[in-house]
Design brief:
The protein is α+β, with helices and mostly antiparallel strands. The chain has three domains: 143 residues, ATPase, nucleotide binding domain (Nucleotidyltransferase, domain 5), CATH 3.30.420.40; 36 residues, no CATH class; 160 residues, Nucleotidyltransferase, domain 5. It has 15 helices and 19 strands. The strands form five sheets. It has a six-stranded mixed sheet, sandwiched between helices. Strands 11, 12, 13, 14, 17 and 18 form a six-stranded mixed sheet that branches. Strands 5-4-6 form a three-stranded antiparallel sheet, covered by helices on one side. Helix 4 packs across helix 13, helix 5 packs across helix 6 and helix 5 runs antiparallel to helix 8. The longest helix has 16 residues. The protein is globular, with a radius of gyration of 22 Å. The structure holds adenosine-5'-triphosphate (ATP) and magnesium ion. The site of magnesium ion has 4 residues, from loops. Adenosine-5'-triphosphate binds next to helix 5 and helix 6.
């Protein structure tokens, strides 16, 4: 082992998984992340600094702090298309995470971070530079989300279907590597469902109150009311009617029963003809992207992909999501296709899959030689991340 390789005190590595909706972070080797908070930050542009009376930006970070309504608080998301876009806000969140959850400084722990498979080289290098130059981490590693989710399920080859807030993605992972040219995305994820609900509420003249937390109120509605039907909407109407409506009360006390519409909204994820909020004839359903992604991999790899579909991401916790996905795939594929859809029944395993994969990876003895050490960074510069973290 060269002296440049971080091979020493692997204990205490930190794993950080930043999604466009939720940030998850904690210590490698633990079962669950210590931190699990909304990625959105509240920014107060001209808050007064009590120490010297000057005015500067104040950042309200973490789910509990952004829930407090404040005049002129702007909600900022530093993640766009699953990549870090606003580096100043990212640093504020990074520092907050160490201070509030790790309770120690970043220079004390090797750090493994997750990234989207399409993260661009300039952003990877910038992140690596910030970590070594500004925060003096002793060692650093960047790993793609779907690879981590596959590891969390104990596999190195799988088709990861990740339904998050901004997208649903189908990513083939083979032998621990993302098959880059086969990564397939659709914009149909949690944010899309919120838009569908807003459209429906407008149509029904339902005003969501309080206005400062419309999205949270709708998320709550989605989790408790929206339901994926077992099969195509048209075919299931009778059985859905038999299920009966669901009663829901909103935070302002308004309450109503929701019948077929709760299935119809979810149907838009599986049949794009049901989309109300936009009309993009090219958008693919969450089941279609699986077949599209698998069609782009080598023909020899396809059976192991169909036989190893792993469903992750919090939007997949939508009632009936994985059962419907399975039915859709089984209906569309030749009967001879060996199909296996794995969706953990333990919600946190789906919500935290890439963090859990990172926690496992960073604590493996065999992984310790893969870290980029501070010395390696100093010798080779920021582009060492492109060589060491595929
Ligand atoms: N129990 C649930 N049922 C349905 N949807 C849920 C549930 N819990 C969370 N969600 C939705 O899942 C989405 C967040 O998913 P996830 O935490 O996987 O996203 P992320 O990784 O932060 O974002 P992205 O993958 O887009 O970068 C949100 O839209 C949220 O409303
Ligand atoms: Mg995600």
């Amino acid at each position: 082992m060269s002296t440049g390789i971080y091979g020493g005190d692997e204990v205490g590595a930190v794993v950080l998984d930043i999604g466009s909706h939720t940030t998850r972070g904690g210590f490698a080797g633990e079962d669950m992340p210590k931190a699990d908070f909304k990625t959105t930050v509240g920014v107060l542009a001209d808050a007064e600094d009590i120490t010297d009376g000057s005015t500067r930006k104040k950042y309200c970070i973490d789910t509990v702090n952004i829930k407090v309504p404040r005049n002129s608080m702007e909600m900022v998301n530093f993640v766009q298309d699953c990549m870090i876009e606003d580096w100043d806000t990212f640093e504020k969140v990074f520092e907050y995470f160490y201070k509030s959850y790790i309770k120690s400084s970043a220079d004390q722990h090797p750090l493994l971070m997750s990234e989207a498979p399409w993260n661009i080289s300039s952003k990877r290098e910038k992140l690596t530079e910030i970590m070594f130059e500004k925060y003096s981490v002793p060692a650093f590693y960047l790993c793609k989300n779907p690879v981590l989710s596959a590891f969390a399920s104990g596999r190195s080859t799988a088709l990861i279907l990740d339904s998050g807030a901004s997208h649903t993605t189908a990513v083939p992972v083979y032998d621990g590597y993302v098959i880059q040219q086969a990564v397939t995305k659709t914009s149909l994820g949690g944010n899309f469902l919120i838009e569908e609900c807003k459209n429906y509420f407008q149509h029904e003249n339902i005003d969501i109150i309080p206005h400062f937390s419309v999205n949270e109120t709708i998320e709550d509605f989605i989790q408790s009311v929206i339901q994926c039907s077992d099969n195509n909407y048209e075919e299931e109407i009778e059985s859905m009617e038999a299920t009966g409506p669901v009663h829901h009360e909103f935070p302002d006390g308004f309450n109503r029963k929701f019948g077929l519409e709760r299935f119809r909204i979810a149907e838009s994820l599986f049949d794009t003809n049901y989309i109300r909020s936009h009309s993009n004839p090219l958008v693919q359903s969450v089941s279609q992207i699986i077949s599209s992604a698998i069609a782009k991999v080598d023909i020899d790899m396809r059976p192991s992909m169909y036989n190893g579909i792993i469903v992750v991401g919090s939007n997949s916790l939508l009632n009936g999501f994985s059962d419907r996905l399975m039915t859709d795939l089984a209906n569309k594929l030749p009967a001879s296709t060996k199909l296996k859809v794995n969706a953990s029944q333990i919600n946190v395993e789906r919500r935290f899959s890439s963090w859990i994969g990172g926690s496992i990876l960073a604590s493996l003895g065999s992984f310790q030689q893969l870290w980029i050490s501070k010395q390696e960074y100093e010798e080779s510069g920021r582009n060492c991340v492109d060589k060491k973290c595929p």
